[in-house]
Amino acid sequence: MPERTLVQAVRDALYEEMEREDRVCVLGQDVGLKGGVFKATEGLQLRFGANRVMDMPLAESSIAAVAQGLALEGFRPVAEMQFADYSYPAFNQIVNEIAKVRYRSNGDFSCPLVIRAPTGGGVRGALYHSQSPEAFYCHVPGLKVVLPSTPADAKGLLKAAIRDPDPVIFLEPKKLYRAERQDLAEGDAALLPLGSAAVVRQGRDLTAITYGYMRAVTMQAAARLSTDGIEVEVIDLRTLRPWDVESCVHSIQKTGRVAVVYEANRTGGFGAEIAAELAERCFASLDAPVSRIASPDVPAMPFSPALEHAFMLNPDKVADGLRRVARY
After folding, report:
1. Domains and CATH numbers, the chain
2. Cβ-count burial of 315 within 10 angstroms (0-12 exposed, 13-18 middle, 19+ buried)?
3. Helix axis angle, 213-226 relative to 315-326, nearest 10°?
4. Strand, helix or coil at 115?
5. Of 37, 199, 284, 321, which residue has the fewest beta carbons closer than 10 angstroms?
6. Is 53 helix (H, G, I), strand (E, B) or coil?
7. Candidates 129, 139, 250, 309; catalytic one
8. pTM surpassing 0.90?
9. Would residue 129 show up in a list of annotated catalytic residues for this protein?
10. 237-250 pLDDT tens trace
11. Which sign, positive or negative, has the C-alpha torsion 299, 303, 304, 307?
């Protein structure tokens, strides 16, 4: 298959799964002939028809509710929220209904659906198009949360999410939609298991745990530290719930130091949960406190380019944070 961007990888995953299984359907705002705001569903309605690629009203709670109904009737719906920020009107449906189907039915019913949403900043999206809400959904038992950072990961994890028997929140870093290209496997060869992290850079001095857009930023920062003789091991979680604790613990036992890098606000971000878990599990292996490198506690992403730059993490900021941990 020719090299594909992340957004094309998402489209390929949807196409292959819809070809493989008639029960897979797509719904959301403008997902039909328009192909979605970012063109992730472009061409799907022409191929599969309006009964399987359904344009929905501007009502996120209804999109989530219809997806749940379809899932309970035996379909495999993939619901798109135009931006992760827009999922909040559907929060009650997702948290109080979708996430609890298996538990409240004592396992008699499942709710196999995926909710896709572009997440994160760096594209001049300002207040309502730039938020990183993964921590909200990671807090909820019954939901799985996925946040890929490469085209291959996006395709493999989305295919796995569609086949999963439980609801999956699938967050796509919009900053990475067209940032790089990769050769992609086809069919089952592309599948990746949920809950498995990837060690994307080997190192001996410090472990950096990250996900989403911050993988690319952290990799650049690690390359800069390498010129100073500091070798950073970088772990991309890929799945946040469940997350691969054991891979992180194994790395920390080797390096003795760890920093968690995440794009969301520092306070209450999912990185804080990672830091707490690793502080408990790895206390005897740590030579320095567990550190968080995150965005400031500003209510929302600014629109001004200068302020957006000040808000967003970049390789310089992450390198400074990693260097402090390495030299603690």
Report:
1. 6-190 (3.40.50.970), 198-326 (3.40.50.920)
2. middle
3. 60
4. strand
5. 284
6. strand
7. 129
8. yes
9. yes
10. 999 999 999 999 99
11. positive
